[in-house]
Design goal:
CATH superfamily of the largest domain in chain A: NAD(P)-binding Rossmann-like Domain
Shape of chain A: elongated
Distance between the termini of chain A: 60 Å
Oligomer: homodimer
InterPro entries (chains A, B): 6-PGluconate_DH-like_C_sf, DUF2520, NAD(P)-bd_dom_sf, TM1727-like_C_sf
Strand order of the largest sheet of chain A: 3-2-1-4-5-6-7-8
CATH architecture of the largest domain in chain A: 3-Layer(aba) Sandwich
CATH topology of the largest domain in chain A: Rossmann fold
Largest interface: A-B, 84 and 84 residues
Order of helices and strands of chain A: EHEHEEHEEEHEHHHHH
Largest sheet of chain A: 8 strands, mixed
Protein name (chains A, B): DUF2520 domain-containing protein
Radius of gyration of chain A: 23 Å
Number of strands of chain A: 8
Organism (chains A, B): Splendidivirga corallicola
Strand content of chain A: 5-15%
Number of helices of chain A: 9
Number of domains of chain A: 2
């Protein structure tokens, strides 16, 4: 069955999610943004939505209201939003628990969290994006699952506690990984070497790790317990205390992880 | 002009490099391995090579001798190998300096380092592999460059000091990245969550970072200076001191890297 949708927010997640839903036969009827222009910009990409700059949805035709704003703004919107009867209200945050909506004007609350990083300028194959759902009641759960299954191949019910764990894991695997690239770039810059040289190795390392598993793919001086190379590297990193400490700590953790199983 | 080649070693790098050279019109004539069977296995994949288990190459038809063995074994091979006159001798190590070959029986020594991770079971598009060259004399440099340019689009002269820097950067961008995936997997395992859920996010994060640059791509609680989330994550990581410390240190470094430019 079809549901009409109102999108509260016009950032990167709202942008991709609204277009995906609109194209999948879940018409987005309204887009709210504090900044009316941003609402209009997203409305321009949709079939029949109206821009809105107030949170009074009492006359809305929609059944599902998706709050897709920065984490800090969720609480205030939940408090201020006026909803039609039996409305379902969800947020799309990976970090905020379900009870961030405890003071909502509806009992049909949930979470609709797409586990992906979005930019307006980058196309994402939405059907490959894992959707992590949570719902306060059976009706909400049924509706969210139905919609989610129509736009993604990877739908999972994940409660707030597990979503927090997922977020921590994502910080390690994604935020920190990106920062390691930054450190590598910085070290190379320091010596007028180009980061481009490393890119083929990075791509192959990541592909290999995801296909074969991280444990079997681990290489480098730490897993080999090549203390001569480790010492030389630490020495060369003395100019930046934090880099040296990151190097030391990650190498130590690799040694601790694999050390006992070897010899 | 063509050169005949003898490969000393039959590991992952030797395997890919020998086949690439053989196919590019640089016939591999001999393959040495301490273990004769390993030499035979590689010879089977080449057009006209002979397996060898001794290091006497005095009657070799080759002009270029490539030592592609584990770092620790290089020195001994350099000391033991018997070469024809005017032979060029190179190693393929990212970590060992040119002077690892100071006692070689030839003055034509160099480094022929393919900056990539190789497995026998994975196909690599060799023309995309950066080749880092170093040479002790002009003749060696000319020959290595000519051969390198015929098998790769990315050839750079990199001296031993810069190759060491490149290696440190690769440890951060590749070895440590792989280990962060392992940590993420481990955290998810602990809560019976599947690492597969994170894979689309990892792929997009890495692609985005390599295409748009790491600085502009940095996301997450640390760069947002979201101390509420950082504290919560640290608390959840208390069960593993090293993970907690890695989280703290990398988050701190992200804050220090981006903090001053914001507000």
């Amino acid at each position: 069955m079809s549901y009409e949708i109102s999108m509260i927010g016009s950032g990167n997640v709202a942008w991709h999610l609204a277009m995906t839903l609109d194209n999948a036969g879940y018409p987005v009827k309204e887009v709210y943004s504090r900044n009316f222009r941003n609402a209009e910009a997203l409305v321009d990409r949709l079939y029949g939505a109206e821009p809105k700059s107030d949170l009074d949805f009492s006359n809305s035709p929609s059944q599902l209201f998706i709050i897709s704003v920065s984490d800090d703004a969720i609480k205030e919107i939940v408090r201020e939003i006026i909803l039609p009867e039996e409305a379902i209200l969800v947020h799309t945050s990976g970090t905020k628990p379900l009870n961030a909506m405890e003071f909502a004007a509806t009992k049909h609350v949930g979470v609709f969290y797409p586990l992906q990083t979005f930019s307006k300028s980058r196309r994402i194959e939405f059907s490959e994006v894992p959707l992590c759902l949570e719902a306060a009641d059976g009706y909400t759960k049924r509706v969210l699952k139905e919609i989610a299954n129509n736009i993604s191949k990877h739908v999972a019910m994940i409660d707030s506690a597990n979503r927090a764990i997922l977020h921590i894991a994502a910080v390690f695997a994604c935020n920190f990984t990106n920062h390691l690239f930054k450190i590598a770039e910085d070290i190379l810059d320091e010596h007028k070497l180009k980061f481009d040289l490393l890119k083929p190795l990075i791509v192959e390392t990541v592909n290999k790790s995801l296909e074969m598993g991280a444990s079997i793919s681990q290489t480098g001086p730490a897993v080999r317990q090549d203390f001569e190379v480790l010492d030389k590297h630490m020495e060369k990193l003395e100019y930046n205390e934090e880099y040296a400490e990151i190097y030391r700590l990650l190498s130590q953790n690799i040694i601790d992880t694999y050390g006992e199983s070897e010899e």
